[in-house]
Write a structure and sequence with these properties.
The protein is an alpha/beta fold and about 170 residues long. It is built from seven helices and seven strands, in the order βαβαβαβαβααβαβ. α7 links the parallel β6 and β7. The protein is globular.
């Protein structure tokens, strides 16, 4: 989605087998973080500026590294905590970069908020889908009766894209 809006996207992957997937999805640079330091790669990719926005699904110890890879006036959006819920951060780095760190999750949001978000997605993104300027990535579709298999695939972490449950009427 960021690429569709003209952003220069860098992604990180834990498994190098996912590099091609991310490139096809619009990333210009993909860093296998177990083999390469993502902060160094970030600074090279941005010519020393750092990223304007970092979407972090790891949290934990990565928050401190995110700050190193962040541009002045940059933003870090925490949306999950696969690396843990605790982070130790040098507050001076936040102040020096005038950084913003925010977190978000949809689970506790009201039905009304989710409905408004759905309307905004429909307004901004559905036209791009209709014009094939943006394509959803579906890894596999399962019948509702196979929900356990779908869940097992999700837990394995080997999928690229969404896992869909199909409900027939």
């Amino acid at each position: 989605m960021a690429s569709a809006l003209g952003a220069h996207v860098m992604a990180t992957v834990g498994d190098a087998s996912r590099i091609d997937y991310c490139m096809r999805a619009g990333a210009e640079r993909v860093v296998p973080y177990r083999e390469e330091d993502f902060v160094t790669a970030s600074m090279e990719f941005t010519q020393g500026k750092g990223h304007d926005v970092i979407l972090d699904m790891v949290a934990g110890t990565y928050v401190e590294r995110d700050l190193e890879a962040l541009a002045m006036d940059g933003r870090i959006a925490l949306i999950a905590f696969m690396g843990g819920t605790q982070a130790t951060v040098d507050v001076v780095k936040i102040l020096r970069k005038r950084a913003s760190i925010m977190g978000s999750t949809l689970r506790p949001r009201s039905i009304e908020y989710k409905a408004e978000l759905t309307r905004a997605l429909e307004h901004h993104w559905w036209p791009r889908l209709a014009e094939a300027k943006l394509q959803p990535v579906v890894h596999e579709v399962f019948a509702l009766d196979d929900a356990a298999k779908a869940h097992a695939l999700m837990e394995s972490g080997t999928h690229n894209g969404k896992i869909v449950l199909s409900v027939s009427r």
